[in-house]
Design goal:
single chain, 205 residues, mainly beta, 8% helix
Length: 205
């Protein structure tokens, strides 16, 4: 019975959720995609005989935001990035956890589409592992992004985003004086869920 009441409440509220998030709404966005490591760290590879690197890796990001007004969408973001350098003398595996504060603003909007630009700052918690030895090398990070939100119906929207993260860190335990690119270009796709805050929309608790 309780499940039916929740379903009915969502159906009644669905028309009010039309379009990408509006003023006074909270958001949760789950994104996944590809990271393109650029620059390629060519000088590091040239000093490591036999080393190879695949510049395209996987990436994941979760964003928790609030639409402060018609233009500004503030976000706290957490993610996971992985990178690997193959080497006959021991592979270097790099795991990075971004912790970011970001903001975006709508540049162009229609009834169902929002094209936005944004950026942010934060930290990358980096751990490099090589030959069984770990090395933690955290770094400050800046990012810029362009994206598109497409309303899917109800409280969900499709999000496509191109983001560049600027960050470097000395992650190799065997070469702690050399910084490597730990950021790169992220090509992300995912789903945003947006919902009303009770104080701003008392008819939808």
């Amino acid at each position: 019975m309780r499940k039916r009441l929740v379903l009915v409440a969502l159906l009644i509220a669905a028309p009010s959720f039309a379009g990408p998030p509006e003023k006074g709404e909270g958001t949760i966005t789950l994104l996944g995609g590809l990271r393109i490591v650029f620059p390629r760290n060519a000088d590091y590879l040239s000093d490591q005989p036999g080393a190879t690197h695949q510049p395209v890796q996987g990436a994941g990001l979760a964003s928790f935001g609030y639409q402060f007004d018609e233009e500004l969408h503030f976000k706290i973001e957490l993610g996971y990035l992985y990178d690997q350098y193959k080497n006959p003398k021991g592979d270097l595996n790099v795991r990075s956890v971004p912790i970011l504060l970001g903001v975006d603003t709508v540049l162009l909007k229609t009834e169902r589409l929002s094209f936005y630009g944004g950026g942010g700052i934060g930290y990358l918690l980096n751990t490099g592992t090589r030959g069984g030895v770990d090395n933690e090398a955290n770094s400050t990070v800046f990012y810029a992004a362009l994206g598109l939100r497409v309303q899917l119906g109800g409280i969900a929207a499709l999000v496509l985003e191109d983001r560049y993260i600027l960050a470097s860190a000395a992650v190799d335990p065997q070469d702690p004086n050399r910084s490597l690119t730990v950021g790169g270009n992220l090509l992300l796709a995912g789903i945003m869920f947006h919902f009303f805050e009770p104080d701003d929309h008392p008819m939808h608790p």
